[in-house]
Amino acid sequence: MSYLFVTGMSRSRRSPGNKEQGLAMVMHKNFEGPAVFEMLNGALEVARQEKRVNEERNIKILVAQMHVVKGELEEALQKFKLLVQENPRDFRPYLCQGIVYSLLDKKKEADEQFEIYRSLVPKEFPQRGFLDDVVLAAKTETREQLEKEFKNEFSYKT
């Protein structure tokens, strides 16, 4: 289920959110929950101050994804919806919303989000095949299978 982390996927070669993404996951697995959001909010503020728009957006997506990792699915959905309002042409929040709706066992809503994702993701996008596999898994696996995979991938390792 590591496919949830699509923040760095953009048309550019540079993926500014990757270092924050890796650090956030390490912090999460080390039981540093609140510190994850403090670190991400700090990185978000730096990106805003330095007017790095793409990095700012990537971090916002990562913040929403970390809410999913923490099991805060409704909070994550709200953040993804705000991201759609900010830029309705970015396919990533639609993909993530589809995954969250699948975790919530809301297949109709998930299908709607996946359909929008499909309409927006460029045909030449390098990771499109991988992301299409993600959509297929989210649509065909049961909620229990998704939750089990998710917990195995993101739960604390002790």
Number of distinct beta strands: 0
- Order of helix and strand elements from N to C terminus: HHHHHHHH
CATH topology term = Serine Threonine Protein Phosphatase 5, Tetratricopeptide repeat
The shape, in one word, is: globular
**Total helical elements:** 8
How confident is the prediction overall: mean pLDDT? 79
Q: How would you describe the oligomerization state of the chains in this entry?
A: single chain
- Helix fraction, binned, reads over 70%
- Beta-strand residue fraction: under 5%
| Total of domains | 1
What Rg, in angstroms, do the CA atoms define?
15 Å
CATH class group:
Mainly Alpha
The largest sheet, given as strand count, sense and whether it forms a barrel, is: none
List segments where confidence is low: pLDDT < 50 over at least 5 consecutive residues: 7-17, 26-31
Q: Can you tell me the CATH superfamily?
A: Tetratricopeptide repeat domain
CATH architecture: Alpha Horseshoe
Q: What's the N-to-C terminus distance?
A: 19 Å
Organism: Solanum tuberosum (Potato)
Protein name: Chloroplast lumen common family protein
Task: Map the helices and strands.
Blueprint (H helix, E strand, L loop, with lengths): L17 H12 L3 H17 L3 H17 L3 H14 L4 H13 L3 H14 L7 H13 L2 H12 L4
Helix pairs in contact: 1-2, 2-3, 3-4, 4-5, 5-6, 5-7
